[in-house]
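Data deposition worksheet. Section B asks for the primary sequence of the deposited chain exactly as it was used as input, without tags or linkers unless they were present during the calculation. Section C holds the resulting structure in token form. Section D is free text for depositor observations; keep each observation to a single sentence. Incomplete worksheets are returned to the depositor.
Section A, Depositor: J.P.
Section B:
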Amino acid sequence: MEPEDFFGTISGGRVLDVATGDGNFIHFLVDSLKDYTEIIGVDNNKDVAPSFSAAFRKQRNIHFQLMDAHKLDFGDESFDFVCISNSLHHLDPEPVLREMKRVLRPGGFLLVSEMFCDEQTEAQMTHVLLHHWWAAVDTVNGIDHRETYTRQQLLDMVAALGLNDLTTFDLNDLSEDPKSKDFLAQLEVVFESYNQRANGHPELQSRGAELKARAKEVGFHSATTLMAAGRK
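Section C:
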């Protein structure tokens, strides 16, 4: 079964997207779910609110709330579908997942979508290693950012929730040229940004230079994402 076939059968009802950022994953939900009544995206970073609002300004049933994922300000069993995408490595995962389960009604779906760091091609490993470098640079700048988890670690976290009818998908796209000149040019801007943020940390700048050379030699593909969904 493909993800679109699976999610296309689900009526989302009242949906919560945890650590939503600018709402990127909500676009997937809108396109994939059979239907929904309301989607609320929560994030503890107030700076993302304007871009979130701009993205969904024409949809009155999609809203942003400023909130800490570790302590959701919602009552028990408030939502029919609760999800988080590519944010667990920025958070303390166990309390966040417990909170997600708490606010989910019995029979509702909980979805975790997260890239993992093992079982990747060489071009995908460029993404993984870059991500770990970005995490290290963020950390020295006081930003919570951990290295990504293994696939089994993610499965173990989800298994600990005791969900029913667990379904998993491994999602990747290896169709693009991993050495695309256009993409490598875009990546160059990212390298420069993080290199500047690593000022005062020559070991991190050296690590960035090595990864820049790797991207040109090996190429870049996005790492595989695990999607794991189950019912409470």
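Section D:
The radius of gyration is 18 Å.
Strands lie at 14-18, 38-43, 62-66, 79-85, 104-115, 164-171, 225-231.
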